Amino acid sequence: MTSRRRQIPWMYRQSRYLIAAVAVLGALNTGYITATKLFGGETACPTSGCEQVLSGPYATVFGLPLALFGLLAYVGMAAFALVPLAVNPEKERSQRSNLENQTWLLLFAGATAMLVFSAYLMYIMFSQYVALYGAKGLCYYCLASAIFALTLFVLTLFGRDWEDVGQLFFTGILVSMVTIVGTLGVYANVNGSAVANPDAPGRAAPAITTLSGQSELQLARHLTSVGAKMYSAYWCPHCHDQKQLFGKQAVAVLPVVECAPDGRNSQTALCQEKKIEGFPTWEINGKMTSGTQTLQQLADLSGYTGSRDFKN
């Protein structure tokens, strides 16, 4: 009788190629975002959510675009998947076997870390952007990256016959804990965001460091008197830039509406009613104007006739 060789499941034979293919797609996705952030430009997106999320406080780590670190992670996953395949199995069987065993554990650890980190970012996107804008708050690039991370995790988990399931479970728990602690540490300043009065509910924007001149104060008072409103979010860097133009004293009388659900004195319902899609958005004399405006522009829009000797 002739013994039949045990047939290797299709998934086991193709899993590394599938992992590499998904990682390449992830690299293209994050590479595009990285290029737009580093070299200027706006990401193409059917909704305003992409630009809102990608310009928010969670989109930057150590002064660099978060997408850059995602790009490096996807490139690393592709490399771990393909490197053992470059070794000739007929001539270097032992070397290839060792490489496969080592890289499989690295692939699983990497996929686990990416999945946990992506899950955290999805929580942020849905709780802070989708909760405010609905479907318009979705960042499709971010959603795609999360799907790629989940796919990589599934492929690494079921892409081979793991002999020591206990070690795999322990590795997954350890990597998840390290990722969660590291993520919370990286975003500690964002999560704790500069609340001057710790007893007041909600998160506040960073402190304004510029000083106001008389013209800035007069303009801020005029905007208040004509019923103008600046729709803002505590985490929005463009909103902070707008306030810096007014200065600390003028901002205190500026008619600012906080739109972030977890912001201090949040008025999310009003922002939704006004269909605010970007920050800052000015409502002046019944007209909506998006983006950071110069004080001269705000003076023109509001019919301000006082001194325009603006300092900032």
TrEMBL record:
It holds the Pfam family VKOR. Keywords: Disulfide bond, Membrane, Oxidoreductase, Quinone, Redox-active center, Transmembrane, Transmembrane helix. It is found in: Membrane. The chain crosses the membrane at residues 59-83, 104-126, 138-158, 165-188. InterPro entries: Thioredoxin-like_sf, VKOR, VKOR/LTO1, VKOR_sf. Residues 12-160 form the Vitamin K epoxide reductase domain. The keyword ATP-binding does not apply. It is a multi-pass membrane protein. PROSITE patterns: GLUTAREDOXIN_2. SMART domains: VKc. One of its GO terms (molecular function) is quinone binding. Its main location: membrane. The keyword Oxidoreductase applies. It comes from the Bacteria. GO terms for cellular component: membrane. CDD domains: VKOR_1 (cd12916). SUPFAM superfamilies: Thioredoxin-like. Belongs to the VKOR family. PANTHER family: VITAMIN K EPOXIDE REDUCTASE DOMAIN-CONTAINING PROTEIN, VKC DOMAIN-CONTAINING PROTEIN. This is Vitamin K epoxide reductase family protein.
